[in-house]
Specification:
Order of helices and strands: EEHHHEEHEEEEEEHHHEHHEEH
CATH class of the largest domain: Mainly Beta
Largest sheet: 10 strands, antiparallel
CATH topology of the largest domain: Jelly Rolls
Helix content: 25-40%
Strand content: 15-25%
Length: about 280
């Protein structure tokens, strides 16, 4: 069993991380659990790309499985105790500061935060399933690693890096699945990037709302979120946000309601395209 120290965080994540420490346990996958996971998640692209069923099973048998606690979002706050025993001799082949551990979130929402020189950290989120990489040990000063948090009861698998590499080279189609998830994360970050800038609040709010609705939507969508929460997510005051809301409302882009904002996605995208200079 691998014991991972995490923080239970208050919303929003990020930039503020406060709360009590809780315990997340990641258990080594046994034969019965490996079969159950392969059966339940067989449609996930990463698993579908493994052509040899024995390879998929061997990969899971050398992995850790865990479920995030109930409550608020949980952020991995430090290198897990027991990581050395999980990685074994592999640690002798790599520098700790260069260690990247592949992990897939099967269910839930993954939140990223990158520090930046702008008005707030660059934040983004994506739903599972998604493959990402954990950097549990401090890296050099020239490298920026994201802080990551998951929603309550998220389910995930932490793969052994060496075994993951071996299975990937034995099943080349896995490279496509890996690259697809990296592209998904990059696209997500680029979609959220303009939210965290010095652009006028109307444009920042528009980009934020765009990030909350389906990518190909052309009709009306509802963003179920209070304006207080949106202000916290944009790292601005409630009064500043009100100016952005008023602007978008006056242009017929949004309608406000109790705890939600109705968005005309077509008008929203047109407005953003006309203000891309920010």
């Amino acid at each position: 069993m691998l014991i991972v120290s995490v923080r239970e965080t208050t919303k929003p994540f990020p930039p503020r991380i406060i709360g009590r420490r809780i315990i997340l346990t990641l258990d080594l996958t046994d034969s019965a659990l490996a079969d159950k996971l392969l059966s339940k998640y067989s449609d996930i692209p990463l698993f579908k790309s493994i052509e040899n069923p024995d390879d998929a099973r061997d990969l899971l048998m050398s992995s850790l499985y865990g479920v995030a606690p109930e409550g608020e979002m949980s952020e991995l706050s430090e290198a897990p105790a027991g990581m050395e025993s999980f990685l074994g001799d592999y640690l002798a082949t790599i520098k700790l500061e260069e260690l990247l551990i592949p992990a897939i979130m099967l269910e839930g929402t993954l939140h990223f935060s990158f520090p930046s020189g702008m008005s707030a950290p660059i934040t983004a989120q994506t739903d599972g399933p998604i493959l990402s990489y954990l950097a549990p040990f401090a890296r050099d000063a020239q490298t920026v690693n994201p802080r990551m948090a998951v929603t309550p009861l998220s389910k995930g698998i932490v793969f052994h890096p060496q075994k993951f590499k071996e299975v990937t080279y034995a099943n080349p189609k896995m490279f496509d699945a890996i690259l697809d998830d990296r592209e998904k994360i990059l696209s997500m970050l680029l979609r959220y990037l303009p939210i965290n800038s010095h652009a006028p609040i109307g444009y920042r709010l528009a980009r934020f709302l765009l990030a909350q609705i389906p990518e190909n939507c052309t009709g009306k969508e509802s963003v179920v979120m209070t304006q207080d929460e949106i202000a916290r997510r944009l790292n601005c005051s409630r009064a500043t946000l009100a100016k952005g809301v008023s602007l978008l409302y006056s242009k017929g882009i949004i309608q406000t309601g109790h705890g939600k904002i109705s968005v005309n996605s077509s008008k929203l995208k047109t407005y953003i395209q006309k203000n891309q200079t920010y």
